[in-house]
């Protein structure tokens, strides 16, 4: 049965307005990043009077953007790898084995998502400072400390999400691998993990995006040498001026890894997020 023409036109108008609403900020960012600073700070014009690539060149010298970029890649990449590896083993144990305290563990993991992150800011700050004063291990102001901080947010969600995905993987695969001579670890790595690639990719994307765009903890737990991109973008705002065109250019450059990764892994991400919804 075909939809009424009124519904079709309403849908087209609604989707057109929604698309314009989503793309309008992107257009403003792109156009502003291609304008001289005087044109950006002056009256707004939909069509730039003159285009220049100078902002994309100056963003690397106004602030040490390359250093911030490397810091973000190292922190986000390490947090993603650690989160995925730990979550795979923890979720597989919860999904396949019965042990004392299993229910308490799963409820505790899920309950950590109920608290806002700002509640952990002061305790983690004091903990890192005391560890540094006592043992000499510099967690505060280091990449390692920031990686551990991001694990406290991404790891619980990653474990909970992979538990549901591993539950949807038939146990017959594990049993067949064990019959063929594989141990539990080999069965996990060679049989279950390949079958759970969409869920693992979804967890990895979530962990990476959480670490890549986080601002609050990165602004407190880092210094000038370990600062990440999310905090480093504030350097384009000085006491004398705000380099709006460079801010827009840097924001687009910063968004490239996340957007490219999302487009490349979109198929796995959608499958992973919907895994276990229907059983």
Report on this model:
This protein has helices spanning 5-33, 37-41, 54-62, 65-96, 102-111, 121-135, 143-168, 171-179, 184-195, 197-212, 216-221, 229-232, 244-264, 266-273. It has 279 residues and is mainly alpha-helical.
What's the short version?
This protein is mainly α and 279 residues long.
Report the strand count: 0
Radius of gyration (CA) equals 24 Å
Question: What is the 3D shape?
Answer: globular
How helical, in percent, are the residues? over 70%
DSSP helix count? 14
Q: Please state roughly what percent of the residues sit in beta strands, choosing from under 5%, 5-15%, 15-25%, 25-35%, 35-45% or over 45%.
A: under 5%
- Low-confidence runs (pLDDT<50, min 5 residues)? none
Question: What is the average per-residue confidence, as pLDDT, rounded to a whole number?
Answer: 85
Distance N terminus to C terminus?
A: 30 Å
The major sheet is characterized as: none
Structural class: mainly alpha
Order of helices and strands: HHHHHHHHHHHHHH
Features:
279 residues, single chain, mainly alpha
Task: Reconstruct the topology from this structure.
Layout: H1 5-33, H2 37-41, H3 54-62, H4 65-96, H5 102-111, H6 121-135, H7 143-168, H8 171-179, H9 184-195, H10 197-212, H11 216-221, H12 229-232, H13 244-264, H14 266-273
Helix pairs in contact: 1-13, 3-13, 4-7, 4-10, 7-10, 8-9, 10-14
């Amino acid at each position: 049965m075909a939809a009424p023409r009124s519904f079709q036109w309403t849908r087209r108008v609604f989707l057109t307005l929604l698309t314009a609403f989503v793309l309008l900020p992107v257009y403003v960012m792109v156009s502003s990043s291609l304008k001289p600073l005087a044109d950006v700070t002056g009256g707004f014009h939909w069509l730039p009077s003159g285009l220049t690539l100078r902002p994309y060149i100056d963003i690397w010298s106004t602030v040490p953007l390359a250093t911030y970029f490397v810091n973000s890649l190292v922190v986000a990449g390490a947090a993603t790898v650690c989160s995925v590896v730990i979550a795979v083993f923890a979720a597989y144990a919860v999904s396949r084995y019965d042990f004392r305290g299993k229910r308490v563990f799963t409820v505790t993991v899920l309950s950590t998502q109920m608290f806002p992150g700002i509640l952990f800011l002061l305790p983690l700050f004091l903990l890192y400072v005391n560890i540094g004063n006592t043992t000499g291990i510099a967690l505060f102001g280091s990449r390692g400390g920031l990686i551990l901080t991001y694990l406290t947010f991404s790891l619980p969600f990653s474990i909970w999400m992979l538990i549901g995905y591993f539950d949807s993987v038939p146990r017959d695969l594990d049993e067949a691998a064990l019959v063929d001579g594989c141990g539990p670890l080999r069965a996990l790595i060679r049989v279950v993990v390949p079958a759970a690639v969409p869920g693992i990719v979804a967890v990895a994307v979530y962990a990476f995006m959480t670490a890549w765009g986080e601002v609050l903890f990165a602004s407190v737990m880092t210094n000038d040498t370990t600062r990440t991109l999310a905090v480093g973008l504030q350097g384009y705002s000085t006491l004398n001026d705000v380099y709006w065109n460079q801010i827009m250019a840097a924001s687009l450059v910063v968004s490239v890894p996340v957007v490219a990764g999302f487009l490349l892994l979109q198929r796995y991400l959608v499958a992973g997020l919907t895994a276990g919804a229907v059983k």
